Structure formats: structure tokens, C-alpha cells
Amino acid sequence: MGLIWFLLIGLVAGFLAGTIMKGRGFGLLGNILVGIVGAVLGGFVFRILGLHSTGLIGSLVTATVGAILLLFFVGLIRGKR
């Protein structure tokens, strides 16, 4: 059951990040992947900043922030703003 929640949070975080970053989403599977990688990146960034999130909403916020950062850096590498 934990894997299903992890994938759902990844999907929602990837979708939200793609929407916030104005269409830089990558489709269903791509958004899940962006959300999962974003969750790891967001957790790392939050830990460095001394922030802590708990629960479903906290996990979603952490994953979304990480996914936004990931899409931002991918956009910089690709040359898109």
C-alpha cells in the first residue's frame, strides 16, 4: 500500500509542478517520475534548510517543491525559461 501512495504523491506532485511551471510536464509516467525524483530532491533540500514535513500534505508539498526545482533545472539545461 505504501508504494501506491508513493506513486500517487509522485503523480500529483509532478502534475502540480508541471502546471506551476507552465506546461513543462511530461505526461502521466513522466509526471510520476518527476514527482518521485522531486520528492527525493525536495527531501534533500528541506533537510539542508532544516525544515521538516509530516503526513500526506507535508509529503505532497515536499515532493512538489522538489519537482518544481527539478523542472527549473531541466529547463535551464535545455535552454528554456
UniProtKB/TrEMBL annotation:
Compartmental location: Cell membrane
Primary location group: membrane
Alphabetic keyword roster: Cell membrane, Membrane, Transmembrane, Transmembrane helix
UniProt keyword Cell membrane present: yes
Record's keyword annotation contains Membrane: yes
Membrane-crossing residue ranges in chain numbering: 28-49, 56-77
Membrane topology annotation: Multi-pass membrane protein
Family the UniProt entry places it in: Belongs to the UPF0410 family.
Name the UniProt record assigns to this protein: GlsB/YeaQ/YmgE family stress response membrane protein
